[in-house]
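Milestone M4 deliverable, item 7.
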Amino acid sequence: MIHPSAFVSPQANVHESAVIGPWCLVDAGAEIAEGVILESRVHVYGGVSIGKGTHVFDGAVLGAPPQDLKYGGEPTRLEIGEDCIIREYCTLNRGTVQGGGCTRVADKVLIMTYSHIAHDCEIGRGAVIANSCQLGGHVRIGEYATIGGVTGIQQRNQVGAYAFVGGTHKVDRDVPPCVKASGNPIRYGALNLHALRLHPEEFPEERIVNLQRAYRMLYRSGRPVAEVVEELKKGPEPLFRAFFDDRWGGSLIRP
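Output delivered:
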C-alpha cells in the first residue's frame, strides 16, 4: 500500500493497511494508524501521530517545526485524531516546550484547503475549519465549532464549542460557546441555534432556553460582563451550566 515513489523511513510506524501515495515523505518517528490515506506529496515529520481512518490530501505538511523564535529544536509533537479530513496544502505545526509540547487535533475534524494550524493549538472534536483559515499559536477551538473561510485567529484566542465564526474575519478576542460571531472587529450576534439543534441529546429545548436567557444577560443587558458572570454563578443551576460547562468550552467566558 506504499507507492514506489514514496519514501517511508524504516523508523516510522506505519500500519499495513495505510495508503501512502506518490511522492509522500514519512520521517522517522512518525506514527500512522490503520486505514490512514496520504494522497500525494504529503510530508509527515517525526513526532507526528495520525489516528485511524484519517484522510490527508495532496501537498499537506504535518508536523513541521513550530514557527516560533523560542523553539530550539526540542522534541515536540503533533497528534491528529481518528477520521479527520485534512485537505490540500494545509500546514499543521508541532508544539513548543513553552506551550506544553503538543499541537492536538481531535477526532472527526475537517480542515479545508490552505489552512494553517500553528504550534500548541487545540482543535476539538467535530470542528470545521474552512478554506484558508490561519490560526496563530496556542489557539483553542471547541468541539463542533465552525470557522468560516479566510478567517484569521490571533494567537492565544479561543473559540468556544458549538460556536460559529463567519468568513473573512479577524478574531482578536475569545468567542463564547454556542454563539455566532461576525464583523470587523468581531461581534457576537446570537446563539448558533443550527448547531445546537443538530445535537438534541446535548441541547434539549430547555437547555437552549436557558442559554438564550444567559446570553441576553451577558451580552444584551448593557451590564458589565464580570458582574453578570457572578450573578449567573449564584443563580439557578441550569443558567449557570448553560455557559459554564467545561466539557464543551463554557469555561471560555472570561470577564
